[in-house]
Amino acid sequence: MNLTSTVSRHGCRLLAAAMALNVAAGAFAQATPPPTAEPAPQTELPEARQILQDAIKAMGGKDAVDRLESSKMKLEMGPVGGSAVSNATLYWAKSDQFFIKGVQQGRVQTIGFDGKIGWASNPNTGGYDLLNAEQIAWARDQVEIQMQARILEKDFQKIETVDLSDFDGQKCYKIHLVQEVEGMPGNQSDHPLPQQHAFFNAKTGLMEGKQVSVQTPMGPMTVTLKFKDWKQIDEIMFFRRMTVEQTGRPPQEMRFTEIELNNVDPSVFEAPEAVKKLAEERQKARDPEKEDKSGDEKPDAPGTDKN
Questions:
Q1: Could you tell me the CATH number of the domain that includes residue 142?
Q2: What pTM was estimated for this model as a whole?
């Protein structure tokens, strides 16, 4: 399933196009990777999961990350070195809630999750659409874009250190990532998945980037993401720029203009009344007989005779 296009249809095309971190994994999930074999791992390389743990440590440590209760991040997107063509604000809470507001050419689009209901504004109808669990998970990864080491450990069933090589001018450990998609097991040759790699600075431990290579109907394609300008805010390190380089297209850039921690008003995550009503209507449609949850006896239907 192409999550990028799916979320786009639910009023989030701005973010789906710009936040290419999971576009690389999602948009190309059904494409065939180039017929190049993964090189055999070098000897004496650090174990991949240890590299992920070191990356979290380099960001400030697991305890510091665990102490983070909420965040608000403002970002703008456009060509590298050019003016912004769109912007977005990402709100996140440790209580598994998030809200995204994107603006492009004066058009506002939103997507949110209050802990129970996921929704997105629909620009075609002017209303809202409810999101399923898969779409909510995809959007959550976009909001948690700064926590890549954790996302990789969670989302990929197999990770393996394969090389120590140059990436964007830095010596980096190269980790091969294998993700199994439902209905497309990665260990079956007739359902191959994209070649995905993450790069971690061998000196600082921080994540430098991610790369995905696929074979599309238009030919080979590679998407490279580079995380730049790491700076500390409170206890944690964040990257302030992310560049996106894609075969055949000019490079794009995401610039974080504001990062604020532990100061988000909980009301930001509240679902609109129209979304609540939509969720109630869907629940009734799924279970029309479940009207009385108190356990009391339901009244007889009109025209029903007990005798």
A1: 2.50.20.10
A2: 0.78
